[in-house]
Specification:
By secondary structure, the protein is mainly alpha-helical. The chain has twelve helices and two strands, in the order H-H-H-H-H-H-H-H-H-H-H-E-E-H. The chain has a two-stranded antiparallel sheet with strand order 1-2. A hairpin with a 2-residue loop joins strand 1 and strand 2. The longest helix has 32 residues.
């Protein structure tokens, strides 16, 4: 029963997610604010629905049933308000959304027309998405999205578990996350001038090595910890979390900006959701792999830990990150130089590589 309820809930949420992605492309793409609004909105959602709930529940202010009822009421109210009071125009004409960030002239407009010139039904959208998955540029991007987060995985959930082993309570971690929330909402605004340019994904690539170094510093923080948790160690953990949040938010905004840049608005909601889904799959699978490796590599003799898998996994993630950057960073930057037609199902029906030198 619970599985059926969760399936319906996620189905409805995913449907609205596609609609919101489509809105971002049609209403905000001209100004380049699609990724910024998306990033800030998700940060607010996590703050209120995850960290906020835990803090309220830990103080016995709210229970889970009451919180879920409040969320469902807010969700329904917002949906009804949008359905009744928010008008929508006809954005099917391609001239308003055709390659606004490329800075190039229209690329053989008559030969590579956007899918937006005609209304597309549900089945046509699925057929177009199958064609999109056959595009060389899209396959290259999906490979990047699946693999690039493994480098930072050990500095996330495994590090939190390690801090809890050292004496940090879940409530303390929630408070630290609350302190980091303003950073998570301010950073997208600060990087907006870069992510609204011609090559928004360069921000993520430029920050890859700094985040890799920061993630490894989490390993050093645990390795060099004092015997007792004092205010100095706590302050270092807070600083680490703030820096990690800032880099993560900047890279996430950069990623979303690139998605918005390459997506065709005619199927933009589905296109964006596809890319976001693969990106989320890459993040979650990386976390699972890192957490699993910590358990597998930990060697115990009775109750005594002979080899802590957290340290081995942290070093492994660092090495994996350096290898990934050496092999994939140029490819990631190269994808931004491809013409708009390389990303459109209507612009490259053959699925052949477009000027692929990597």
């Amino acid at each position: 029963m619970l599985a059926a309820v969760m399936f319906i809930l996620y189905f409805l949420a995913a449907t609205q997610d596609i609609v919101v992605d489509g809105w971002a492309l049609t209403m905000l793409k001209r100004r380049g604010w699609a990724s910024t609004c998306n990033s800030i909105g998700q940060s607010l959602g996590v703050l209120f629905a995850s960290t906020g709930y835990y803090i309220l529940a830990s103080r016995s202010i709210v229970t889970l049933p009451i919180f879920l009822q409040a969320c469902s009421f807010s969700f329904t109210l917002a949906t009804v308000f949008v359905a009744i009071f928010v008008p929508e125009g006809d954005d099917s004409h391609p001239t308003s959304t055709h390659s606004i960030e490329d800075g190039r002239q229209r690329e053989s407009h008559e030969g590579n027309k956007s899918l937006g010139e005609a209304k597309i039904d549900t089945f046509s959208t699925y057929r177009q998405m199958r064609t999109v998955l056959g595009l060389h540029a899209v396959r290259q991007l999906l490979l990047i999205l699946i693999t690039w987060k493994i480098s930072f995985a050990c500095a996330q959930a495994p590090l939190v578990f390690k801090l809890q082993e050292l004496g940090f309570s879940k409530e303390s971690m929630a408070y630290i996350q609350t302190l980091a929330s303003p950073v998570e909402m301010i950073v997208p605004l600060l990087v907006a001038p870069k992510t609204t340019g011609e090559r928004p994904f360069s921000v993520a690539m430029d920050l890859y090595i700094p985040r890799l170094v920061l993630s490894f510093s989490g390993f050093l923080l645990i390795l060099c910890r004092p015997g007792d948790i004092g205010w100095i160690f706590t302050a270092l953990v807070v600083i680490f979390k703030l820096l990690q949040t800032a880099l993560s938010a900047a890279m996430f905004t950069s990623q979303l900006a690139f998605f918005a840049r390459v997506s065709d608005p005619a199927i933009g909601g589905s296109y964006m959701t596809l890319l976001n889904t693969v990106a989320n799959l890459g993040s979650l699978s990386s976390l699972w792999i890192a957490t699993r490796m910590v358990d597998v590599l930990t060697v115990k003799s009775g109750e005594e830990i002979i080899l802590d898998g957290f340290y081995v996994t942290s070093i492994g993630c660092l090495v994996a990150g350096m290898i990934w950057y050496a092999l994939m960073s140029r490819r990631a930057k190269f994808l931004q130089t491809l013409p708009k037609s390389a990303w459109l199902a209507s612009g490259n029906l053959s699925g052949k590589p477009v000027n692929s030198s990597l």
